[in-house]
Design goal:
This protein is of the alpha+beta class. The protein is built from 16 helices and 29 strands. The strands form four sheets. It has a 13-stranded antiparallel β-sheet.
Length: about 525
């Protein structure tokens, strides 16, 4: 086939050009820089053309391509007439693919579906790592499942992977901005580049990722019936990740923009750090599914070495163009358009390793309490049955202590202000062998992380970790504090807060009653009590 790759001299476009030439296609490198296009074309055995996608498109049709691939971007910045190119391809009877990672651009291309079908061409957006590869992995992992509850994916490149200006600008443009994410069937606002999570890519490779918007969050709930869809991205160097996290927090607070000069500066600074880290990265897709045998966690891992990471976003287009007759005409996001097996075959000439792992899920609290868990009333058991993210909502009353000491400590922990009645939501998310609890009382949020350590249930608030004497008594679940530490340093007992906390069932509902008293004085810090029900 004759394929024009727009942005063909860029980081991902140039890799696609190389793959397509390997597969025997007649490839035209189209780029704004004629010199860059010519240099690549001469190196790989392609032809080239100088082309600006915002200019005259007639130059494309004079080449008489079978397919046009847009690998330029950033797609969020394509302006008011963002589908000018795919519409022109349809009018010319030419297939169209793009490597978009922008949700709106990818999802709304379906508006061109009737025209594409009438012209007998396919118009696919998001032919990249997301959603093309991620959706293929979900499809493979959900075989024989009765329901897909949660989809969590991450892309974690090595530091020495080349970075393009469009990718850097795309990250900065959304960093700190609110984004809508499906969590347990509800749409929840999250801040882009927040909520870090650690991922195990296998063979000793662990990386952290931060939430960021991609097409998956807007497409996969409908495509797979998933209640929760999460995506994270992360860089290998902690200094780069944490700098972006600080930028995200500041931008959310003060509302400043992300101008082009900042993108250029960020790209230059990242290149200065090229010597650190490695050329190894990876991708992970994790699903939590219900099966006839119970809950399972199924994970597809991909590790990429030898600097081949930038080839991965180009693989779906390569696979599609190997067998274009198998692709139905029409315009749509590239969700499950090719199989995971075909994609892995399309990576065989790259330094890539993949594997699938399966693990039965036993939630944290049932596992820790054992037989005592059965003694709890149904409403309490239901709340702590957390095989996947769960969202509960209700009402609460909050009382705050009046002493200066108690107010100071309560402020440090971020406890909510006093109120006679306020809406409350709690999101519990299985994470790294424990559960992340995110609580929101009115507009006030605070969170903690619960896990089992040395045979005891612990709860961590930032650098502070408390050991809980979690136990069942009189049909209620009690959470007294037994010990505490900041980092590795243990508190003396007189510096421990007093926790009088219980969960119980009343009138068929889950209820909570938590009173926390300040160390030293025993003065009340906060007392919150109320009820919750599953927010379906």
């Amino acid at each position: 086939m004759k394929v024009i790759v727009i942005g063909g001299s860029g980081v991902f476009g140039s890799r696609l050009v190389r793959l397509l030439v390997r597969d025997g296609h007649e490839v035209v490198v189209a780029a704004r820089s004629a010199a860059a296009a010519q240099n690549l074309a001469e190196t790989v055995g392609a032809t080239c053309m100088s082309f600006d996608r915002n200019g005259d498109l007639d130059a494309l049709w004079r080449v008489q391509p079978d397919v046009v691939v847009d690998a330029a971007g950033p797609f969020h910045a394509y302006g008011d007439d963002r589908y000018r190119l795919p519409r022109a391809c349809i009018a010319q009877g030419v297939h169209y693919l793009d490597l978009s990672d922008d949700l709106a651009f990818c999802a709304e291309i379906s508006a061109l579906d009737q025209q594409a079908q009438a012209a007998g061409v396919f118009v696919l957006s998001g032919v990249s790592s997301v959603p093309a590869i991620s959706s293929a992995a979900v499809t493979a992992l959900s075989v024989d499942a009765t329901a897909v509850d949660t989809i969590s994916s991450a892309i974690l490149p090595g530091n020495r992977a080349p970075r393009g200006a469009s990718v850097v600008q795309s990250i900065l443009s959304q960093c700190g901005q609110p984004m809508d994410v499906p969590v347990d069937g509800a749409i929840v606002a999250q801040r882009s580049w927040s909520l870090p999570e650690s991922f195990d890519l296998g063979q000793g490779m662990r990386r952290k990722g931060w939430v960021i918007s991609v097409p998956d969050q807007g497409l996969f709930a409908d495509a797979f019936g998933a209640r929760t869809v999460a995506f994270r991205a992360g860089l290998e160097l902690g200094v780069m990740n944490h700098t972006l996290a600080v930028f995200s927090a500041l931008r959310a607070q003060f509302g400043f923009g992300a101008p082009a000069w900042l993108g250029r500066l960020t790209l230059w600074l990242s290149k200065c750090l090229w010597w650190f880290g490695t050329d190894a990265g990876g991708m992970i897709v994790d699903v939590r599914v219900n099966t006839s045998d119970g809950w399972q966690r199924r994970t597809w891992r991909m590790r990429v070495n030898a600097g081949d990471g930038p080839f991965i976003p180009a693989v779906p287009a390569r696979v599609i163009l190997r067998d274009p007759q198998d692709i139905a005409s029409g315009a749509r996001p590239a969700v499950s358009v090719v199989s995971l097996a075909a994609l892995e075959q399309g990576m065989e000439d790259l330094a890539v390793q993949t594997e699938i792992a399966k693990q039965d899920i036993i939630p944290l609290f049932p596992s820790f309490l054992g037989e005592d868990y059965a003694a709890l009333p149904a409403a309490v058991r239901d709340l702590h049955d957390v095989p996947a993210p769960r969202r509960w909502a209700g009402r609460a009353k909050v009382t705050r202590g009046g002493s200066l000491w108690a107010r100071l400590i309560a402020g440090i922990f971020g406890f909510p202000p006093a109120t006679e009645d306020t809406p409350v939501t709690v999101i519990m998310t299985p994470q790294e062998g424990g559960e992340l609890w995110e609580r929101q009382f009115g507009n006030k949020r605070f969170g903690s992380f619960l896990q089992v350590a040395d045979g005891h249930m612990t709860e961590r608030f930032g650098p502070l970790t408390f050991t809980l004497g979690l136990h069942v008594a009189d049909g209620q679940l009690h959470f007294p504090v037994r010990s505490g530490r900041i980092g590795p340093v243990r508190f003396p007992r007189f510096l421990l807060p007093v926790s009088i906390a219980r969960e119980y069932e009343a009138e068929g509902r889950f209820h909570f009653d938590v009173a926390l008293k300040a160390p030293l004085t025993g003065a009340l810090m906060v007392h919150y009590q109320g009820w919750l029900k599953r927010d379906m």
